[in-house]
Every structure is written in C-alpha cells, then in structure tokens.
Amino acid sequence: MMAHKLTSAVFPQKDKLIRNMMGILTEAQVGNPLTFPMCGFSSDDWVLALLKTKSYIPLNELGPDHESWGMKDAGGGRLSIHDKAKQHKAYAETGSFGNYLFQTYGINKIKQFQRLSHEKDRPWQDVFGISLQELETNWLKTLRANEKTKEENISIVSKLIKRNPSTACAEAQQHVTSKR
Questions:
Q1: What is the total count of domains within the chain?
Q2: Would you call 73 helix, strand, or coil by DSSP?
Q3: Whose CA is closest to 84, among 176, 171, 175, 177?
Q4: Which of these, 80, 89, 110, 136, is most buried using a 10 Å CB contact count?
C-alpha cells in the first residue's frame, strides 16, 4: 500500500476512481503483490473472478466520492469501511483498468489524463478518444481474451468470493503465503 499512498500524495486527485487507478497501477508495478487489493493475485484475476461470479461493478457506478466504494467519511479526514466486499471489488477493478490503460495507451496518455482531470471531470473522451463505457468494453474484452491462461487463479479467487466476499482478500493472502 505504500506505493499506492505515495502516488496519491505526489499526484493529488479529488476523483477517487482516477486517484486509485493511478495508485494501484503503481502498487502493482513496484509494491508488494500481497497487499490490498491484489492480495497475492493480479487485479486481472480478481476482475475475471468477479465477472465469473456475477459480482462485477460497472466502472460508471464508481463515483468520485467514498460511498460508491463501500466507504464513509467518518469525519476528521478518516474513512470507515461499511462494505468491505464492495471496497475490494472497486479497488481491484480500478487497478486492472488502470493497468489496461497503461498497457494500451502508454504513460504519456495516463499523465495527460491526470493533468486534464484537474480541469475537467473524467476526460476520457478528450484523452483516449472514446467514452468510459467504450474503454471499459475494450478492457473487459482484452481480459476475457486472456482468461484461459489464468484459469487456475480465477478458479481459486472465484471460490473465495463465493464463500465470503468480505474475507476473500485475507483468505487469498493466506492461500498464497501457505503455498510458499
């Protein structure tokens, strides 16, 4: 989580989707893969499992606020988690989506998007040339095209989500560390 928090501090962003998209991307690149939201598996594995278990949250439902992420402002700059499963889904999806944008469009487009988002709310069309819905469709299509190579991980993660979505991350961490 340190790389994620550092990215959020260096690139401040009021929109939670954009802030976490960049933060989780950084965490996945240089951080600890056992930390939230990866919990020992890739964000792509989590998203494919969420799709398989029909618990995926469309990106347009993840607002710039905390509530749509399963969290509440507890006052004094503190957040409380009121829906741990929703929080994990939202963060995993955002990490996978951020990685897709990075892999597909490159770092310069990500930086351009970050800069422009301070002037305009969610400038997907302006930077990437298509809407968030089209970006999401393309991202999910790309994930599904690579699904066969990740079947074992998707199966494990899907079982954890079905058993208890609120504890899936912690159980995934235990699973991965017990295999070492």
A1: 1
A2: strand
A3: 171
A4: 89
